[in-house]
């Protein structure tokens, strides 16, 4: 990551995918990968201690 961001200034985001999007996400060129980034409804998220 140091090749892309200044030290201590990393920007990361979770990418929530539907099962049928996984292969497309892995093979998408960088300019198309933004299409997969979207907010996930908070009511679908849970916290686990596992």
- Oligomeric form: single chain
> Cα distance, first to last residue?
27 Å
Poorly predicted regions are none
- The total of helices stands at 2
Q: Tell me the overall shape.
A: flat
Element-by-element helix/strand order: HH
Percent in helix: 10-25%
Query: Taking all residues together, what is the mean pLDDT?
Result: 81
Count of strand segments: 0
Which value, in Å, is the CA radius of gyration? 14 Å
Strand-pairing-aware structural class: mainly alpha
The biggest beta sheet is recorded as:
none
The share of residues in extended strands comes to under 5%
Please sum up the structure shown.
With 50 residues, the protein is mainly α. It has helices at 22-27, 30-33.
Structure write-up:
By secondary structure, the chain is mostly helical. Helices cover 20% and strands 0% of the residues. The two termini are 27 Å apart.
Key features of this structure:
flat; mainly alpha; 2 helices; 50 residues; single chain
């Amino acid at each position: 990551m140091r090749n892309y961001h200044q030290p201590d200034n990393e920007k990361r985001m979770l990418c929530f995918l539907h099962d049928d999007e996984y292969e497309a996400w892995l093979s998408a060129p960088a300019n198309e990968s933004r299409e997969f980034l979207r907010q996930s409804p908070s009511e679908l998220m849970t916290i686990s201690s596992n």
